[in-house]
Amino acid sequence: MEHFASVTELLVMDHWTWAIIAVALVSIEILAPGIAFLWLGLAAGAMALLLIVIPGLSLGLQGVIYAVLAVVSVFLGRKILRRNPIATEDSLLNRRGAQYVGRVFTLENPLINGRGKIRVDDTTWVVEGPDLPAGTHVRVTAVEHVILRVERVEG
Amino acid sequence: MGPFAVAMIVLAVIIIFMGAKVVPQGFEYTVQRMGRYTMTLRPGFHIIIPVIDVIGAKINMQEQVLAIPSQEAITRDNAMVRVDGVVFYQVLDAAKAAYEVRQLEHAILQLTMTNIRTVMGGMDLDELLSQRDRINAKLLNVVDDATAPWGIKVTRIEIKDMQPPTDLIDSMARQMKAEREKRANILEAEGVRQAEILKAEGEKQAAILAAEGRREAAFRDAEARERSAEAEARATDMVSTAISAGNPLAINYFIAQKYVTALESFARSPSQKLVFMPLEASSVIGSIGGIQELWKGLGDAGASGSGIPSAGRPRS
C-alpha cells in the first residue's frame, strides 16, 4: 500500500492529466469500436472540466467521482439516444415480415378457420384473418412472428 | 489515489463493459435475466443490468443459405439417385430461434434431407428429372410448415443436382439414341415410299399419255384409211363413170402402153439372165388391134373413113 500510494503521489492528477486520459480513451474507442471506452473517455473529459472549476480535489475523491461519472455518462447517453433515436434509411432491414405490411395479395386458396396460405413473391406465407373464399384480395395489416395478419380489401 | 477509489473505477469499467451493448445491424440479441428470457435487443445501443442480465444468444437475422449435402434416395420405380440442394431461410423471431430449437441449422438440414427422400420416393425417375419445380414447391411447403414453430421462414428450397447411377444414364442415352434413330428410319422409309409413289404416278401418267397417243394415232390412221378408201372408191367411181360414159377401149390403150413399157424395162434389165416369159405376141398384137379399134372409134367420131391414118393418103 505504501508503495502503491507513493506511485500515485508521483502522478500529478490535475485537469491536464484527465484531459490526456480522455483523449487517449476516445482514441482507443476510435481504433477499436465497442462503445465502452467512449463513456470512460467522456467521463475523463468531464473530470478535466470539473478540476478546472474546483482544483485541488484529493486523488481518492477524484477516483470515486470519476467512477460515478463514468456510469452516469452511460445512462445519460442512452437517455439522449432515446430522445433522438438513430435515424436509419431503411427501418425494415432484416425485418422480412414487416416489409409486406400494407401490400395487397390475392388468395389462391380459401382461408379456412382463419388460416391459410398466400403466395408472396417467390415463396409462401401463412396468413391469419377472417374466413374468405379463394380469389379475394387481402391486405397485410400486421406481422406476428412467421404469420401475416390480413384483412379483406373492399372493392 | 486510495484503494477504494481504484476499486470504484474498476467496478465502473466492468459495469460499462458488461452493461453497454451495441447490437449491429443484421443481428438480434436475446437477454436472459437470471437465466430466464426477458427481451430481444434490436440493432442499436442498449444498456442491460450487468451480472443480472446476460446476453443469451446472438441471432443472425439475415437470410442464410444452407447447403444440403449429397445423399442417395430411392425413387418410386426403384432407381437410386444422388441429390443435393440448397435451403434459404431467415430468422423472423430471434427468441424462438434461440430457445425453441437446439442446433437450428442441423435441424433444418435433417428435416429437409428426410423430406427430399419422402418426396422422391413418391415419384418416378422420369417425373423427378422433369419436374424439379414441383419438387421444390412440395419441399418448401412441408419444411416451411415444420419450421414455423422455430420462428424461421424457409423462403426457398432448390434441388441443385440429380445424378442417376452411371448405367442408368447410359441406358437413358441409348434410349434417346434409339428413339432418334427410329424417327430417322421412319422418315427415311417415308421418303422412299413417297418417292416410289411419285415414280409410279409418273409412269402411270406416261403410260396413259402413250396409250392416248396410240389411240389418237390409230384413230387418225383409220381415218386416213377411210379417206384413202373413199378416194379410191371415188377414183374407181370416176374411172368407171368415165368408162361407162366413154369407150371401154380407151382403157386398153393405157394397158397396152404399160405392157410395152414393162417389156422395154425387161429388155434393158442389166441382169445377164434371160428371162423367158410367156410372151403372147398375139395379145400384144391384140392390144395394138385395140388401138386400131380406138382409132376407128375416133375416126367414126371425127367422120373419118379409116382407123389408121396412112401417110400420103390423098385427101378426098
Automatic annotation (TrEMBL), chain A:
GO CC terms of this entry: plasma membrane
Annotated Pfam families: NfeD
Annotated Gene3D superfamilies: Nucleic acid-binding proteins
Compartments, record wording: Membrane
Primary localization: membrane
Annotated membrane topology: Multi-pass membrane protein
Segments passing through the bilayer: 15-32
Entries under InterPro entries matching the protein: Membrane_assoc_protease, NA-bd_OB-fold, NfeD-like_C
Entry keywords, A to Z: Membrane, Transmembrane, Transmembrane helix
Ranges where the NfeD-like C-terminal domain occurs: 98-152
The protein's name: NfeD family protein
Species per Swiss-Prot/TrEMBL record: Govanella unica
TrEMBL record, chain B:
Gene3D superfamilies: Band 7 domain
Gene Ontology cellular-component annotations: plasma membrane; side of membrane
Keyword terms of this UniProt record: Membrane, Transmembrane, Transmembrane helix
Membrane topology: Single-pass membrane protein
InterPro entries reported for this sequence: Band7/mec-2_domain, Band_7, Band_7/SPFH_dom_sf, Band_7/stomatin-like_CS, Stomatin_HflK_fam
Main location: membrane
PROSITE patterns: BAND_7 (PS01270)
Record domain Band: where: 18-176
Superkingdom of origin: Bacteria
Annotated localization: Membrane
Pfam family, one: Band_7
Similarity comment: Belongs to the band 7/mec-2 family.
Name recorded for this polypeptide: Protein QmcA
